[in-house]
Structure formats: C-alpha cells, structure tokens
Amino acid sequence: MDNTDSTIGSSSKGKSKVKWGVERIPDLSGRTAVVTGANSGIGFAAAAELARAGARVVFAVRDLERGRAAAAKVSGSTEVRRLDLADLASVREFAEGWDGPLDLLVNNAGVMMLPERRTRDGFEMQFGTNHLGHFALTNLLLPHITDRVVTVSSGAHRMGDGFIHFENLNLDGIYSPQRAYSQSKLANLLFTLELQRRLTESGSRVRSLAAHPGWAATNLQSHTANPVSRVLMAVGNKVVAQDDKGGALPTLFAATQDLPGASFAGPSGMGEMRGAPTLVGRSTAASDVEAAERLWEASEGLTGVGFPALSLPVRAESGRA
C-alpha cells in the first residue's frame, strides 16, 4: 500500500504538498473488491480504476443488464451480481452467495432527495437504502472481509436537522427530501465510526473508513424530488462540479491508502466540493460515539442483522489494500 505522508493530516483548509491521483493506486493483483452501485457515476469510476489496478471487481447492482453493460466498458477482471439495497431479502441473497475472501467492500450505492417512498421492508427509502441496506450487507459479509470497508457519505451530513431522528427514523409527518438525505448521510458516518470501534474491540485489523465525493456531476441529482432543485443542480454540475472520475478519487484514496480506521476522505478544494483527495473533518453530530452506538442498536433491530459473533479474519499484510 502506498504511504501518503503528503496528504495525511491535511484538511480542506490546507493544500496537500503532493496531489494524490489514480497513478498512486498500488498494484491490486490478487485482490477482490465489491462496489455497490458500480454501474454508473462515481461507483463506476471507482470500480474501473480498481480493476485497472489489477483487482477482481464485483459490480453489485440492482439492474443486471445495466451492470453488464457497464462492466463491459472496463479493462480488467469484473463480475456482475444482483443486489437491491432497498430489499433486505436481496441483501441476504447476495451475502449468502458469497464464498471466499473479500479484501474490499465499497458501500457506494445511494439515492438522493427522492419524493417520500418506502423500501420493500417499509423503511423510508433514503435511510433504508443508503444506510440500512449497507449496514446489513456489511455485517453479513464481514466474516469474509480481510482488509477494509469504505462507506460513501456526503458533505450533506452537515445539513438537514443535524441529528438522527431516533424516535421517528422514517420521518413520518416531517418528511422532506433534504432532511431524509442528510439523515442517511449522517448515518453513514456514524455507522463507520461504530463499525471501527467494534472491529478494534474484537481485535480485528479490518478497517472501516468513509469518503465523500464533494460535488460530482453524476445522474444522481437528476432524480431529486424538486424540479427547481434539479435545474439548480444541473447548473451546478456545469459550473462547480468535478466529473465522476474526480468524485471517485476520495473513495479510491480511502480504499487503497494506509489510513487510520474511521478516517474520512474528501476533496481538498474550497468547500470540499472538488480537488485532490485528503483527510477531512466531519460535524460534531457525526463524531458522537453515543449516537453511533444507539444507531447501531436500532439498525440491528430493524434489519435483524448484527455484528458477527465469530472471530474475524486478520489482515495478513499491512502493505497492500
């Protein structure tokens, strides 16, 4: 694994001495990675770079046809498997079908600022997909994971109400697309924090990290509920945003560099909207260890999936991703 002294410890307030790019991804030959939502956007860009570096990359996607079309564009070893994060039965089926070691899980798939709707299991769609689906997937796959879990959050975790609505996780009667999205992205960071605590406590060397893409121009914004927001985001995509390859850099940085557990990677530019990846800060709410533990317990109750009791594999090499 590449040592990134030039970026570790820097933040969005300061520039890295050396800008990190995909040319610094180490050789990943012999490694296996799962990327959820790999058929488009930053998920596709990340999957493509991991495969280019030699990893066997599994595209975990809801639509197999779209997934196969995306994988066909990638140079390297790929496989496409069906996964619908809005359906816990699909999540279990994916995990039950996994055999052998898994070096890297990238929890990338997500939905953004949708009209109010529910998952197949009755959860608010954004919380259910962005958080609960990945929570269940990670814990079910954890006995196979040998190196790390990277969960994609967002700078939007600072927006909304700034806390988890534990007494009303579905936001019944108070739903807004922004509030729900922000809650789900805050949940991603609290999940990363509590997962790392549990991994450390268990003696595992598997690491839990998070990343956010800044403002990346992808098709995610085109599905927002408010038509005015869609227009504003379309303008922002052309004026402010970086492309999906730029947006994938923080994910790749977190996935392949020797970073401490619970690290949060994001763009180094102004407002963390674009630029080379570095370590970034998070809100006070996203650092709340008590809220992280409470969210974990609530998520276990909702999904019926918990942290595996069996001993976890120990990472054999510290020098690779």
Task: Kindly describe this structure.
Strand 1, helix 1 (41-52) and strand 2 form a beta-alpha-beta unit. This protein has helices at residues 41-52, 64-71, 88-96, 125-141, 177-202, 227-239, 244-256, 289-303; strands spanning 32-36, 56-61, 78-82, 102-107, 145-152, 207-211, 264-267, 277-279. Residues 1-16, 231-239 and 312-321 have low confidence and may be disordered. With 321 residues, it is an alpha/beta fold. It is globular. Helix 1 (41-52) crosses helix 7, helix 3 packs parallel to helix 4 (125-141) and helix 4 runs parallel beside helix 5 (177-202). An eight-stranded mixed β-sheet has the order 3-2-1-4-5-6-7-8, with helices on both faces.
Brief summary:
This protein is α/β, with parallel strands linked by helices and 321 residues long. Helix content is 35%, strand content 13%.
CA radius of gyration: 18 Å
Task: Tell me the distance between the termini.
Answer: 6 Å
Whole-number mean pLDDT? 88
Number of helices: 8
Structural class: alpha/beta
As a percent range, the share of strand residues is: 5-15%
Overall 3D shape: globular
Low-confidence stretches: 1-16, 231-239, 312-321
Major pleated sheet: 8 strands, mixed
| Count of β-strands | 8
Element order, helices and strands?
EHEHEHEHEHEHHEEH
Strand order of the largest sheet: 3-2-1-4-5-6-7-8
Percent range for helical residues? 25-40%
